[in-house]
Amino acid sequence: MANSMASHLVSSDPDLSQIMVFHTANIMDVTGELKEYDVIYLAALVGMDIDEKVKVIDHLAKYMAPGALLMLRSAHGARVFLYPVVDAQQLQGFEVLSVFLPNDDVNNSVVISRKIAEPVSIDNGYNHHHHEWSVDSVMPLSCKYCDL
C-alpha cells in the first residue's frame, strides 16, 4: 500500500518519476539488485520488533553498494511504544550521517546512514533482553537536529 501511494505521488512529477522506482518484495529475498540503488528507504514497520529489524539492517549492510544511503525510520520518546527503536550500534556496516528526532506531531524519527566501503562481517551479538539502555544507545554520537 505504501509503495503504491508513493508511486502515485511521484508519478505526477515528470522529473521524479524518471529517477524514483518503487518495489514491493521480501527484502530478505533481494540480494544483488540492492547494489543498483543509491538510496534505500526502510519503513518503520519493516521488522515488527528490534531483532527482526536488525536482521534486515544486517542483510542490507551485506548487499547494498558501498556509499549508498540507507534512510530508515525509527522512534523516540513515547513513540517507542509504536515502533522499534534503532540504535547507532545496530547499524553495523553503516556510518550514521544524520538523525532527526521530531518533537511535534510527526510520529517517526529518521536516521540517514551511508554504507561503508569495507566488506561487512556482521556479528553484532545483539540481544534485546541483555541490552542496557543509555543516552548513548538511543542517540548517535552526532545528531544534526537534536539536543541531549
Automatic annotation (TrEMBL):
It comes from the Eukaryota. This is Uncharacterized protein.
